[in-house]
Amino acid sequence: MKTSGAEFFLELRDVHKIFRLPSGEVRALDGVSLGIERGTLVALVGPSGSGKTTLLNLIGALDKPSQGEVLLEGVRIDCFSEEKLVQFRREKFSFIFQDAKPLRMLNVLENTLLPFTFFKPKQRNGSIKDAAIESIKSLGLGHRIYHMPSQLSGGEIQRVAIARALITHPAVILADEPTANLDRDNRLFVIDTFKRLSRERGITIVFSTHDLEIANSSDRIIQIKDGVLLKDEPSLCPPCPA
Amino acid sequence: MNLLSLAAKDIMRRRGKSVYLLTAMLIPVVILSTILLTVDNADRSLSTLASKFGFTITVQPKNIKVERIDQIGVVIDEYLPETVIQSIDGIVRNRIGNKQEAIIIAPRLYQRTDALIRRSSVSMVVAGIDFQAERMAKPSWHLSSGRWPTGDGETVIGGAIARANNLSENEVLTVDGRTFTVAGILENYNVSEDYMVFVPFSALQDISGKKGFVSLVNVQNVSLDRDRNLLRNVVDELNNSIPDIKTLVPRQFSTMKYVLLKKTFKFLLSIVAATVFISIFAIFNIVTSVLYSRIREIGLLKTVGASRSQLLFMLLGEYSAMGLAAGIAGYPIGMVMTHVLDSFVLNLGAGVRFSLTVLLASIATGILCSLVAGFYPTYKLAGITISDSFRTQWEV
Predict the structure, then answer these.
(1) Coil, strand, or helix at residue A224?
(2) pTM value?
């Protein structure tokens, strides 16, 4: 199991997360340390309540650890102010949640461009709209660009979430059970897309899943149970050629 | 797409809840605009009424009861000797000193009689007046048609009686055997004079057999209008020196009524304040409920890069837009309510008039209520962490 080291792109050092509830304390993560290299596709697996989502939230600075450190490119991000975190997330992270459905009042293109309602795009050639349309087309939604979310299937909705995640050119994509509730074809499409993005664009992708077939398609599988890392090993599937 | 267009799309998507919220915002706006428009209506009605009584003081028989401003200047079957005119003139001139200014003294004589109009007998009140003095004292007196009388055989009639009897200029009416030609028709002022026929003072004295008598004497003087103490002294002296008279100050009635109106206005404003307060609670509850149902959406917006201040701006922008809509929609509803209230309850008679001030007050109330009620829940929800927003217990 890899532990702390300055060479890691993403790193967690002895991270604990404790939720204090009226019924008592829940130790969601208990001394987790791990390091992830740039451009890796990492699958987090484990039973429900094992701490996968909590771990993703801490990696993405959506939550703060009760103890320990979270670093991105060697910089501690767990002690950033809210203002700095917003800026940091805009530049580095994209999120895909199982529950984060597209906004119902916006069409596919508008949902894809939603991040730019809140901040200006990084410097780039060509129009953002063209880039969004290109991204949507590359995900097989070329015929759905101006469709509303209510007109899309579950698989197509998840592709819209991926398109939205990609439009900001993130360094890291964090996905919480992105293939849940999808049929096999759509699950494979999502994981193949992730693989392509990590290989071609060097995006670090960390996703949680219950699906071992999907997990085995990743570069690395981290198994977690009761807030503790059980296994951290390369997947059975050999890395695809670049 | 900017934040405000995103907010507008959201309002359109949640039409049902938006209408519900809009209704809660409408309540204080409608009540406010109704009350303000009613007060404006009452104020104008009062000032119109006061302007009808352009005289400073009215001297009339002591035993005529006067409880309202529109009862001043209507004296039937009670008379004063014409010599009071000289006494009044003397007292007023003495009190105002050597000032070279006009004292308008306008005696009136009233006679209830049956007049002949196109061979039909019509019961009416005929007022004998000094046209020149009356017109000098009451510049707001206007004719809707015709001209002012130039001779003893001419008359001017009130707008209401002209309409009721379909009378027009140059028609003839006969009062106690004497014929008068209608020279002009007065505008309608919603006062008792609208139903009167005005003939020259001396002519009515002749035909009514009241030679040497007056029903009342109106006086107007600039110094008396300006100086309250002087006015009080003149009134006291007139009442004390001339037997069996009562001196009234018409403007004083309107002032008293105005003071009463101001007090009522304050009471009505406290009702508006209470309504606004209660409505803010209602809006607060609806906003909170709506926001909790949007908690995942807020989480999603934060994941794509929305900051707390941007969310606050967007959400408060939504509520402000709805407050603005409530302000604009509430104003015409308030106008209708005022009209209904005036027609069936208050009968103020001045009519409902467009008031930019009231419209702006309505809009300000709508926006202010929505912002005050919406700020706290929006501020709290905009500050929620992304991880908390996706927890299942927030499901509504």
Answers:
(1) strand
(2) 0.66
